[in-house]
Specification:
The chain is an all-alpha fold. Helix content is about 70%, strand content about 0%. α2 packs antiparallel against α3.
Length: about 130
């Protein structure tokens, strides 16, 4: 089965708490960038999101919908470092500055959860986390 299709089916068939988390990540990484598209930060966030979605689909195609899928957020590591270094140029009271700070928080939490999942995968927990996707 195609990795893109299997990845999307995995999200659709995930428990509600996972769907809500994914929805929040999409809301933070997709909606505000469209509002701030004239800012380089928004453009880079969108590029990072597209890269992450592609990588997660590829990982799903290779290993199934396993704990390794979260490693697809790897493009967020340099993104977050770059955004962190730009905070002094983004006023905290400005809408763009508020969004960037919230994005850093949400994506950092996601990376921590992804790290736990990657560790579990490397430790041998390689079963698909959502079953019956084919």
């Amino acid at each position: 089965m195609n990795g893109v299709v299997k990845f999307n089916l995995g999200i659709i068939k995930s428990p509600l708490r996972v769907k809500l988390w994914v929805g929040m990540l999409l809301a933070a990484n997709l909606a505000p960038p469209l509002l701030f598209l004239d800012h380089i930060e928004a453009q880079v966030v969108l590029l990072s999101l597209v890269g992450s979605l592609g990588l997660m689909s590829a990982l799903t195609g290779l290993s199934g919908f396993t704990r390794l899928v979260g490693a697809g957020h790897a493009p967020w590591i340099p993104l977050l470092a770059w955004l962190w270094m730009r905070l002094d140029q983004l006023p905290a009271g400005d809408a763009l500055g508020v969004w960037i700070r919230a994005l850093i928080l949400v994506n950092t939490i996601s990376l921590l959860l992804d790290g736990i999942d990657a560790f579990r995968y490397l430790a041998g927990d390689r079963e698909e986390v959502v079953l019956n996707l084919s």
